[in-house]
Structure formats: C-alpha cells, structure tokens
Amino acid sequence: MSIIRSEISRRARGAVMAVALALTGLMAQQAAAADNPYGLIDPKVISVGTMGDSKPYTFITSDGKFTGFDIELFLNVAERMGFKKDQVVFTGQEFSALMPSVANGRFDVAVAAIGTTEARKKTVDFSDGYLAGYLSVLTPDAKITDAASLKGKRLGVVQGTLQEIYATKNFKDTDLVKFPDNNSAVSALNNGTIDAHFLDYEAAKDYTARFKGLKIAINIPSFDAPAGFVVRKGNDALREGFNKGLHAAMQDGTWKKLYEKWFPGSPMPAEYLPKP
C-alpha cells in the first residue's frame, strides 16, 4: 500500500508542477502581450516601409526626411496609438518590395498609397481605406487621347502597382515597360524611350508642373481599390489600432486638413469627411 501511496503522491506532485509550469508560461505570454500589444518587431518602434519618390504621397525632402500626405497621416495615427515621431522609423524601398517585406517581417507596416485588392490580401492584411483617386496616363504625345490611342505604344508602369495590374488586363495591344519607380519612368518618357507613363493622378499632376512638355491625357476612376496601411497577415491588433486612429483622424477633421494641404483642388471623397 505504501508503494501505491508513494506513486499516487509522485503523480500528484507531477500534475501540480505541470499546472504551475503552464500557469507560468501563460503569465509570461500575457506579460509579453502587455509589453507589445501591437505585435511589433520592436515593441517601442513602428518600422515602416515606404517610397522616397512618390510625391505627394511619400517622398524625401532635400534634408533627407520623409514627408507627404501618407507620411503625415500615418504619423498622426501613430501618435494616437501612443507613438512619438522619433518612435516611427521610415525606410525607402521600391514599390514591388514593400508588401513582401511586410509579409516576411522586415517591416511592421507599409505606407505608400497602396491600393487594397483581393489578390494582395492573400499575402498581407490592410487597414480600412483612407484614400481613393484616379489612374492617369502621362505623355508628351498629343495623339494619345484615350485608351484606344495607346495601341502599339510603349507604356511605362511601376512594377507591382495597380496601374500595372490594370494595364495588363485592359491595354492588351500596348507594349508595357516596367520600371522600379516613377522617376525612372518619367526620365524614360522625357528622353523618348517610352511614349507614355501610367501612374496615379496626383503624382501625374506633379510631373506636369515640373515638366512643361508633359500632359495628363487619360484619367481612369479607381475608387474600388482604396489605399490602406499594409500589415502582416493575422496581426489584427495592429490593423485594428490603425483603423481606430484613422477613423478618429477623419472624424476630427485631421484627414480633411491634410488632404487640402497635399491635394489642393482635388475632389474629396465624402466617406473620409467628418460625420455630423
């Protein structure tokens, strides 16, 4: 009987130890979650992948700082989440590398007027939309006036963008030439390597101001793929934190002020304006 009691006692102690270890592990997990509620790579810093040449959305100033509509809006949202400006680190990349870099854990978020599509949502998650606009064809050629006139032309697109997706599907008789960024495409446009460049309306408008020989020939509505902040698949805490901050920025008029600053004279979607 003493042997049986000893075995029962040993098993009981083992069970108690197992429960204690499980509780310790749970408490450690809860402590880690409390220290890093948004599941960031570094709990004290938001690492952001962006672009340095996509004015007026995201670009680098002469003193090496990132700015633009998306940058200022993101900093405002981050501040609402408890992060100061020096706790947000921006790193420039080519557009095509942004979403893979978030999916692979290099960045916590990608911010660069990135349109939300079902195909992209297979590998990353998006915040709620905060921007919608037009896709535009920029060209010096007066004969390019509509989609039909692009037939047989060499059309530039930035690799991985909505413009590339749209052009591949809809401009089948056009020779698409892929570039890493808008600046290289516009350089090719100005030296005659390509006939036109397909990009976002606001960026196209900026290039027409800088290069007098260029004009916007075609505008295509793109309100079915609003821009959102890109986060790692399954990081719901960070995505919901962004959504809460975005909604607050829209409701208190911050979004409206930034839009008027960076897109003067452009149409303003009602869904992003303060609700009465």
Helix and strand content put the structural class at alpha/beta
Broad shape: globular
Rounded average pLDDT: 91
Radius of gyration over C-alpha positions, nearest whole angstrom? 25 Å
How much helicity do the residues have? Answer: 25-40%
Structural commentary:
With 276 residues, the protein is of the alpha/beta class. Helices cover 39% and strands 22% of the residues. The protein is built from 8 helices and 13 strands. It has helices at 2-35, 69-80, 95-103, 162-170, 182-190, 201-210, 236-251, 254-262, and strands at 46-50, 53-54, 58-60, 66-67, 88-92, 109-110, 124-126, 131-139, 154-158, 175-179, 196-200, 215-227, 230-232. The chain has a 5-stranded mixed β-sheet with strand order 5-1-6-13-7, with helices on one face. Helix 4 links the parallel strand 9 (154-158) and strand 10.
